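Lab notebook page, bench 4
Experiment: in silico fold of construct C2
Operator: M.H.
Input chain length: 436 residues
Purpose: comparison with the prior construct
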Amino acid sequence: MGDAESSLVASERVVKPLVSVIIPTHNRADTLPRALDSAYGQEGRGDHFDLEIVVVDDASSDATPSVIRAYPEIRYIRLPERRGVSAATNAALQVSRGCYITFLDDDDVWLPHKLRVQVPLLTAHPDIGVVYSQSLVRSEGKEEWLYPEASKALSGWVFTGMLMDNFCGHHASLLARRTAFETAGYFDETLRSHVDWDMSLRLAFHVPFLFSPGAVDVYNLSPQGLWLKRAASGMGRADAARVIEKALQLLPNSPQYEEIKREARARVMLGAVYPLLLAGDLAQVRETAVTTLRAHPWIIRHEWARDTLGQAVSTFALSTTSPVSTARELCAEIRSAIPSRTLWNRWYARCTFGAIWADTARVLASSDPARDRDSAYAAAIAIATMPSFLRRPGLLRLIVRGVLGRRADTICAGWYMRMRNMLGAAERSAKAPGLR
């Protein structure tokens, strides 16, 4: 047999990986077909990988069974009584046969290239247990954004990083080996929300992750979804705290990990403001932020805490008729929660208030033009609080806009371009031969 024939025989022996797609569903007959079509529409299906779709119907009372009949290839399991999304997902995992596992919510969709990108990565890196990418998040009445931010997404042994930031909490964006679940265990059926984060943490403790940038799915974030409903009810915070405590039990009880545990508990407490902001429950946002600071005033030394407070206060202020007065009132509440006994405390408090006013300025600038003067005022307070913010040209532009109106954007853009060109020319001259 010649070399060409040997290569052909070898290629024919290559087994295409089987990918199991887990879709739990409950009363989503209207959106389920869109999700299923996005799975069947994956580029490379049949050529580079095979697909097994397992739908577990969590006792739906709508037309879900009729929808499934239009897809004869689906493995369909109907639970006799409602058991929750975790139980439905576990039922699908137990009957699935793929060496690779992935998930899709019944109201979300995959982009056509998801598996074409992720399957080869997992195949080429046998040491990796999970490949994950970004989701394009769509929220009702809000702009789209990518989650997680590429700068915050980690690769490798990411357990400690994931304790601090839930950067792989939407499982439609991941592809995992079956063996990873056999090691980490199945989904916690006693949790009502933050189930994906709990699973991601357990996976991250046992296997390395690989981040592949770029959106691979569309995550339709609805106020009627379980995550935001639990957040608005106040129960989401308890769920998140329980997830963190479960994960922290995996770490040794030693002084080396005490600071990690302390910060993780504080971060999950303050991080509760994010779903509350998305749910529009601003009263709970205010209470959560102040309560967290009173319990853990030391967190203001961390940039993540200052950023969170800035987003919380600016969003709350924008919802009122007098945003500047509201921001000033909230800053006073925050100041009362931060001890000022040491110089460092006072310094980090200034950093916090500078971040709050800078965020308030930006939020006001992106709203009604009638608020440009308020935006300029907030930007001026941010710079007066933290003079180093003068290096942020965006804040100076907002101040100029407040004086000259929005025509200042064109003036400032031209000025920034001239300054950039001058700096570039100076750098090139410095690097020229004879001037070194």
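Observations: The radius of gyration is 26 Å. Residues 4-13 have pLDDT under 50 and may be disordered.
Next step: discuss at group meeting.
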